[in-house]
Amino acid sequence: MKRTGVFICHCGINIAGTVDVKKAAKELAKHKGVVHSEEYVYMCSDPGQNLIIDAIKEKKLDNVVIACCSPTLHETTFRNAAKSAGINTFQCEIANIREQCSWVHKDMNKATDKAIKITKSAVERVRRNESLEPISVPVTRRALVIGGGIAGIQSALDLANSGFEVVLVERSPSIGGHMIQLSETFPTLDCSQCILTPKMVEVSKHPKIKLMTYSEVQEVSGYVGNFKVKILKKPTYVDPDKCTLCDECSKVCPVLVSNEFDLGLTGRRAIYIPFPQAIPATYTLDIKGCPGLLPIACGKCADVCEPEAIDYDMKPEIVEEEVGAIIVTTGYDLYDKENMAEYGYGKYADVLDGLQFERLCSASGPTMGKILRPSDHKEPKEVVFIQCVGSRDPELHCAYCSKICCMYTAKHAMLYKHHVHDGQAYIFYIDIRSGGKGYEEFVQRAVEEDGVLYLRGKVSKIFEDKGKIKVWGVDTLSGKDIEIDADMVVLATAMRPSKGAEELAKKLKIAMDKDGFLSEAHPKLRPVESVTSGMFLAGAAQAPKDIPEAVAQASGAAAKAIAILSQDRLYHAPTVAKVNLNLCTGCGMCVEVCPYEALSLKDGKVEVNEVLCEGCGTCSATCLRAAIQVKNLTPLQVHEMISISLGG
Amino acid sequence: MVNLEDLKKEAKTVLEEGKVKYIIGYEKSANGLMPVPGFIKSPEEVEKLIWTPACVYNLTKFLVDEKRRKSREKKPDERPVGLVVKGCDSRALVVLLQEKFINRDDVFIIGVSCEETGVIDEKKLIKKLKGKKAEKIEFDEKDNFIVTTQEGKVKIAASEVLAERCLECKANSPVIYDVLLGEKAKRSVDNPFQSLEKIESLPERERWKFWKEQLSKCIRCYACRSVCPMCYCDECVADTINFAVTADTTAEEKAQKIKWLEKSPVKSENFVYHLVRAIHLAGRCIDCGECERVCPLDIPIRFLNKKLEKDAKELFDYEAGFDPEQPSLVSSFKDEDPEDFIR
Description:
The structure holds 2 protein chains of 2 kinds.
Chain A: E1 4-9, H1 13-16, H2 21-30, E2 34-40, H3 46-58, E3 63-68, H4 71-84, E4 92-96, H5 108-127, E5 135-138, E6 142-146, H6 150-161, E7 165-169, E8 184-185, E9 190-191, H7 192-205, E10 209-212, E11 215-223, E12 226-233, H8 248-252, E13 256-258, E14 267-269, E15 271-272, E16 284-285, H9 300-304, E17 317-323, E18 325-328, E19 332-334, E20 351-353, H10 354-361, E21 382-389, H11 405-419, E22 424-429, H12 439-448, E23 453-456, E24 459-465, E25 468-475, E26 480-486, E27 488-493, E28 495-497, H13 501-508, E29 535-537, H14 547-565, E30 569-572, E31 577-579, H15 589-593, E32 599-602, E33 605-608, H16 618-622, E34 628-630, H17 635-645
Chain B: H1 4-16, E1 23-27, E2 36-40, H2 61-72, E3 81-85, H3 87-98, E4 107-112, H4 122-129, E5 134-139, E6 144-149, E7 152-157, H5 158-161, H6 164-167, E8 179-181, H7 197-201, H8 204-216, H9 223-227, H10 251-255, H11 267-280, H12 290-294, H13 301-316
Parallel strand pairs in B: 1-3, 3-4, 4-8
Antiparallel strand pairs in B: 1-2, 5-6, 6-7
Helix pairs in contact in B: 11-13
C-alpha cells in the first residue's frame, strides 16, 4: 500500500469558514493508505510548504494530496515542493475544496462532507498516478508576425533587435496599416507619417526581418516552439528590384479605380504605389481593375517600363516558414458604411468617416492638407462631428466602446479649427472618455482654445437641403432641440476587427470574443497571450485601442515571444493521451475530434503526437472502446474517484 | 422483382472467377420458412442460395467474425468476401466502412433490393396465419406476399406482416454495392419515426414506468449485443472484467479491474447496460432491428435506438449509414449545432 499524506489548507477563512478543516483532517487520517493528515492556515506559505516537505521526508510518503484552492493557482507551487522533498511532481494532486466547495456552499456540515469526499477522491487518484517527466522539445528560434500595422511593426522590430529572425507578413502591398493614413496623432499632434516612417524604414533595412507584403497566411500547423506556416505570396507583377519608381506605368494605365489609401476620396490606377513612402517601395499591379495580363488586352504599362520590371507571368507562390512563436496583429476596420445609412453615410458626399477626415487633414492627402468638401471643394464653415456612431449601441450595432473616438474627434475638431479659423465645430457626444496621459487636458484645450462646441446628445436625423447638410439633434443638458445647417458631417464610426481576422483566427485556432476580437488567455494576467500556447496578440485585433497602447502591447507580445525563443528546449506537460493498441480499432473518431490535431492513424491504429497533445481528454470521452486515455486520469482512476465519492 | 436465378448467376460468376473467397447469403433451413445464413464456398453450392421475404438477418455481422478469423491466420486469403445485403444491411456496412473496421477491398457487395416491400416479422405472420404453419413465403407483384401453408397458398398484404423497421425504412435498396439485383427503389415514408409517437406522447412518469417494466425483464443474455454488427468491440463495458490484459498491463492494473456494472440482471444494472449500449449506438445504429428480433423477452430495444436516431436527425441533421466518408456523429461539429443543453 502506498503511503499518502493529506494537507488541508484553511486559506484563512476562505475554506475554514465553511469547511470544518479539523474534522476533515481527522476523517482523512482514517482513510486507507493515508499515513499523515494535517491542516494549516496557509499551505501555500513557506511554513506551509515546509510542513509538506518535512512530512514527505520523515514519514516516507509516496504521494501527497493538498486540499486547497483550484489547481490553476497553486498546483505548480505544491508540485515543486513535493519535488524538492524527493518525490515525482506527479505524485502530488490538488483537491479543490475552495472554488468547488467552500465558496459555493453555506451549510458547514454538508460542505465538510463534500470537502472530505473531494479529498478522498484525490487520494484515490494520486495513488494510481504514474511518475512522469516533462516532455522536452527543441525550439525554432524565429518568429512570425501577422499584420504590418504599427503593432506588427513594433513587435517585429523588438524581436529583431533582440537578435531573433522575424517573418513579417502583411496582406496589402505596403506596411504601415491605418496609422500611415492618419494626419496628426493625439494628444501631442505629431505628424503620424513622420513618426511612423522611420520605423517602416527600419523594418525594410533590418537584416533579421524578412518582410512579405501582399502575402497571406494560408495554413499553420505544429505547436509552440515549432510551428510550420504556409504563406501565399500574391503576384504583384512588378519586380521590386528592377522598379525605379519612375511612375511611367501608372501614367499610361487606362484604368481608374477607387483609392483605398484615401478611402475612396481619390482614384488610383490599376498599377500603383499605395503612397510615396510605401515599404517595400515598388509598384503593384492590381489585377482586379486591370483589363488583362495579356499584352494583347492592354499591356501599356509593360511597354513604357524601361527597366522591364513588369512581368505578366508572375505566379502566386506558397512560401513555407518554420517559426517558434507567432504574434497576431491584424488590426481593425471601420464599421461598414452599409450599417450607418441613418446618418447618410455613403449617401451624401459630405458625410465622412473619421479616416476620410484624416486624409482631408493630411498634408499628403487628396487636398494637400486643405480641408475642403468632397462635393464642391469649398471650405466648410460649420462642421458637425458625431461620436459613438455604431459604438455603445447594444441593440442595433456594437455594444462596446471603441475607445479612441472621443480623443480623435477632439483632435479632428481642433485640426479643423487650425485650418479654418472662422469655422465652427460641433461635437455630439454621449460621454467624454479621456483617460490617458495628457488626454483630458487635450479635450479641454479643444473646448477652451479652439472653441469647439460640445453637445451632449444624439443626432436624430441628417438630410441634405439646399447644399447644406441639416443635422437635427437634441442637447440633453439644456433640453433644447438643435438644428445645424452643416457643411460637412464627420462620423466617429465604431472599430471592428479587420475583415478576414475571423478566418485567420480559425486557421490559428485562436478564440474570438463575442464581437470578433481575438481573445486573450486571461483578461488581467495574460493580456497578450492567446489561449494557444506560442501565439500572442497585440493591437486593435484584440480590442479597440490607441497607438500608445498598441505599441505597448506589441512590445509586451514580443517579450513573451522572446521568453520562448530564448530557450534551448521547451518542456511540455507529460499528462498526454496514451493508446491501448489492443483495444484500438482505428475508427478514427478521436482523430476527428482532437482539437489540437495531436492524433493520426498509422497502420490502422491511432498514434499520439505527445508534443501537440494538451491532455484535454476529448479523445478519451469519444472513444467507444476506452482505447485511448489520458495519463494520470485513466478510466480506472475516474472510476475509483466516483466510487469513493459515492461512499466507497 | 429480384430474380433468384440472377442472384445465383452473379454468385456463380464471382466464385468461378475466384474473385471472392466465399459468399455469405441466405439458404433454406430445416424449419422451412425461416432461412439460415449460408456460406457458399464453391460454384456448385450456389444452388443453395435463396431470396425470400423471410431473409431478415443482417449478415454484415459475419464480416466482423471474418475480420477476427483473418487476423489470426498466418497466411490469410486476401480475397474479399462476397456478402448479400439488403438496403438496411448495406447501411450497416457503410458504418463499418466509415469506422474503418472493414476495408472496402475486403468485401464484394451483392446488393438485393427490397423494392416496394421488405422483410417479414415472423411473429406477425404466425399471428396472421392463426395456427396454420407457413412452409414457404415468396414475393409477389405489387405489395403482397404469397405464403404456402399445408392448406394451400394464401396472398397476404405485405403491410400486414412487414417488420416494423421496414414500415419506417429509409433505404429500400442497397446504398452501396458491387452488383445490384432488382430495381433501385425509394419508398417514401411519411414519418420514419412513427413508431415512437405513442411512447413519446406519454408523460415522463409513464415513460419511466414503461422502461422500468421492460428493462426489468432483461435476463442479460446479451443476444442483442451478439447480433449487432456495431457491437464489434473486443472489450465491452458490460463484461464484468472490463479490462484487456495485454503485454503492457501492469500487475497493479490487473489487480484493480474496473467493474462498471454488476453481472446480475437486476433493474439498475440492466438500465446501465441498455443505456450504455444505446448511447454507444447513437449515430451508428441503422435500424436493422436485429436486437429486438432476437430478444427472448420481447423488450422493445429498437425504441431506444430509434429515439437516438431521431435526435441525431433533428438536432444535428445526421443520418448514419449513407456516406462512408462523412465524419461520425460524435466526432463532428458544426457552428450551427444546438447548444441549449449547455447551461
